[in-house]
Write the structure tokens for this entry.
Amino acid sequence: MNVGTSISIVIVTAFVTLAIRFTPFLLFGSSKRQIPQVITYLGSVLPPAVMAALVVYSVKHISFADSSLWLNEIIGILVTAVIHLWKRNTLLSIIIGTIVYMILVQGNFH
Amino acid sequence: MPKKHIVKQAFLRTIPVMMGYLVLGIAFGLLLQHAGYHWLWALGISISVFAGSMQFVLVGLLVQQAPLTTVAITTLLVNSRHLFYGLSFIERFKHMGTRGLYMIFSLTDETYALLCATGDVGSKEEQDALSFWIAFLDQCYWVTGSVIGAILGTLSSFSIVGIDFAMTSLFTVIFIEQWLSTSNHVPAIIGGLCAILSLIIFGPENFLLPALLVAVMVLSVFRKKLEENK
């Protein structure tokens, strides 16, 4: 590896990532212009849509070809959901859901 | 709410992200160390880039010593979903001054999810302070994990296998909370359907951006209808 090239690669990655994150604010954040209504609307309806997409994203490697590759994830999500609907305690739902999932995947190694 | 209480609140809310980020950060540090990079590189990258999936891709780009145009285009493709996250926080971050700049820089998937769930906090000032601490703690976990991974080099603790599922649980819980707090479930259903269809069509590595693009288009087209239903 070449240190100079490596540093340039990291700087370009950091810069492009930063530019993407700042773009919506540069486009719509100026105090003079009013934020277009469609942007305000998207800002309000996107969180639930994005959250649904992120749940799928976080289990994206599941494969329905082999039941061992999706059953653990589905059970983990269902346990989290049921505990949450029952107790409405975020931390409790996450800890129990995660422990159940860990027991399931680690069981598969033996 | 005194500052100490706000930091404690932020810590409690970020525990699931801590579990996920420490584990994923360690995995990133291990990869980078195996590619021949000192742990200072892991520290520098996690502080300056701070984008989970992109940093894993970055290890590959470093190993290949890829041309900078390739690096720029790859980063654009992997991270462009973040374009949509800012849209929900334009007003909020604008009023946060210098801290707002850090909020924009540090808006990852997980921080976005946690910030979407801070509506229950009393005053605006408290919400701002809490948001800042959530973003800052999240990055601390990520930086710590990646440095630990790079220093350890090899890790043989299979007992923590699966702990990163905490992030799936986190997204699930926030999804449920959002579902229960609104009577209009169409956006959630559209987001879920777009993600599943996109995953089937494009495969696991490239599906999130097209999923979000289509979701934004569908939501825009049905704007009139959705606003009537509110």
Remarks:
- The mean pLDDT of chain B is 88.
- The CA atoms of residues 94 and 125 of chain B lie 13 Å apart.
- Chain B touches chain A through 93 residues (CB under 8 Å).
- DSSP finds 13 helices and no strands in chain B.
